């Protein structure tokens, strides 16, 4: 086992051990060790049994005073609600992946004296905490969560989440009212119908009694549960269009109105309360299913807020002060320390810096910036502390620009939904005309039958089975996808995925792991490969440069003297009395006073690093990103499904070409900016292709938005999730072909559903118009057709093998089979 | 059949009570998160002898 017990990342030569439940488990860093031992030490070792997948790796050397600024009551006040003696806050928790995580946070917080209540919701990634403000402050709460390896963010705007929660609650209540009401009314209706069937005459007083009771029950169903339907019909009438709800509402109002009239006018006419309540129940059920599928997206709305820090270090005349980002002004000087995210756009002041701009440009290696150059918000400072003068804040920053680009791109989305609505509108127009004609014809032949027949046409023609056909199939498919480690965030995405014929991969972090390793070592100065690697590892040990991490596995005993790091160029150090340099070829060549730098061997691709001493060049290292385990097989399977794979990357040619070869992808495009990627995808679409894009960075967000279907990696940027239709939660590419197959199966089942609904509707309308179907039978038929559709959709549900594999195992299991 | 004049209002009263109970449950957030509370039950379980290793 060579991965960390806590975070699941490779050990990279670490020999650290964490003691968890009387067992020694290997961990990758002291951060993970501390967290694992903290979890075990508080008797919460159960966490490791119940979690899905691995936990978040705590950032090393976490700035202990990072949370101190939250102790300031004035600063904390903008996030918290205060009541006498207690304070509450809602925190968005980064890294909250599963229910076991939420359980852990809950447990650890509760052990703190002064915490009144904790509730952690794994679905939305939020925790609400209420504590005694005399004993604790916000900083203590956040520090406690951070100690577990999660990153808490105070939530500033809860309106979206609150609205989603309210919608879900309202829909549940409406469903309950409709369901209870339907059962009650049906009970009375069955009594009346059975009397009719037995050719017995019911006592008029009893019949009347039943009618009044039915009216009493049906009224809240009609005006509470049915309110959204009636309102939406009213709205679409006001905007002069015919929505699905218009004929439905007409039927409901007619049936309800006539029933009320007949109830008060004695036993002359029929009452239709049973049809009304059943109708509303099934419509509400359909809406509830639809809403549940849609709400899977909740929680990513705060994605952008998560991207930028809320605290900055402002450089004042005599000291450096931690201030909220909101209080910064253009022209302020701020300091950004190593590993921190830039809170604003600015000009680099004191020293050259290495900035990780992967999220903006897709470039996997940090970019060197000279003094005076512009750096942008949202990028990460990789080297030592830098000072910048702020040039743009908030909405003016380049990051906001990317978000705007993404929003614009999303309007390019094929309007499948709009087409379906238009078709339904036409159909419903015909239904209304048909109902009018039926009414007119019956008025001429037999006025007594006219109302019942018209009502039957309106009810029987309700495209309820139509309306439920897609959502039911989608709900089942969503459950099935979840078991493959895929989160469906946009219901349209599945339909598009089934029809996709091109798939465009981003390289870094998608086909590859996004971590560099030494793929080739060419030694030339008489030393063997392993010795060269050892020297390199020793020199790079102190370096925080991302390239340096590639050498960690080769680390062995030894000491380095006179270690000197030259930012952006390399490292120099003395081992066993000999002076070595590792870094850019030019930097290494300088040591041996060679102006003529030897060019790197042609067979090396990717990032090339040189090692040399005072006399000669010793070795060349080629660093490449390693391919994800399932990448090649997934690409092959996709091709056998008639989907053409492509690579579209911001990286250099050589690296992209290498990955393309390894996966067997013929078409690859390197060095593309976010705009060029967008243009490429739009161009493919212009040629009639249906394109899926799979990526992981914020830079991919615009192109994800424009694709017919967009897929984001689970560990990718939150903003990429926000614009993606599907999220590969387990980061397992093998799930991709499965998803395509499932999507196609879903579309097939949805088509069967639609066909069945069409046959039912078209067959029954003439019968209803001719007066063969009483309204109650129409409502029953309508409901049964919906039930048939739902039953057909359950075929998409995952097969029941659950007894042998507990759900918690799934994602870990997936990881295991591919690792 | 006059017993119906007693039983039906009684059943309606029960329905109203059940409906009220459901509304209360929804409003107090009982249906907001249907996943995490399921794990609470595991809190005090004795650890099983053989531990499945999830990260193997």
Tally of strands of chain A:
29
Spell the H/E element sequence of chain B.
HH
Radius of gyration of chain A: 32 Å
Distance between the termini of chain B: 70 Å
Shape, per Cα inertia axes of chain B: elongated
**Main sheet makeup of chain B:** none
Structural category of chain B? mainly alpha
Overall pLDDT metric of chain B:
75
| Overall residue-averaged pLDDT value of chain A | 75
Q: How big a fraction of the residues of chain A is strand?
A: 15-25%
- Can you tell me the residue ranges of chain A where pLDDT is under 50 for at least 5 consecutive residues? 297-306, 405-418, 800-819
In a nutshell, what does this entry contain?
The complex is a heterodimer of chains A (819) and B (56). Helices cover 47% and strands 18% of the residues of chain A.
Outline the structure in words.
The complex is a heterodimer of chains A (819) and B (56). Chain A is of the alpha+beta class and 819 residues long. Chain A folds into six domains: 1-61, no CATH class; 66-156, Alpha-Beta Plaits; 163-297 and 415-462 and 777-796, no CATH class; 326-401, Calcium-transporting ATPase, cytoplasmic transduction domain A; 472-512 and 628-747, HAD superfamily/HAD-like (Rossmann fold); 514-626, Calcium-transporting ATPase, cytoplasmic domain N (3-Layer(aba) Sandwich), CATH 3.40.1110. In chain A, helix 25 (718-723) links the parallel strand 28 and strand 29 (726-728). Chain B is an all-alpha fold and 56 residues long. Chain B contains two helices and no strands. Chain B has helices at 4-27, 36-40. Classes of the chains: A alpha+beta (819), B mainly alpha (56). The A-B interface holds A 1, 3, 5, 8, 21, 45-46, 48-51, 53-54, 99-100, 102-103, 107, 120-123, 165, 168-169, 172-173, 176-177, 180, 184, 188, 203, 206, 209, 213, 216-217, 808-809, 812, 815-816 and B 1, 4-5, 8, 11-12, 15, 18-19, 22-23, 26-27, 31-33, 35-36, 38-40, 42-43, 45, 47, 51-52, 54-56.
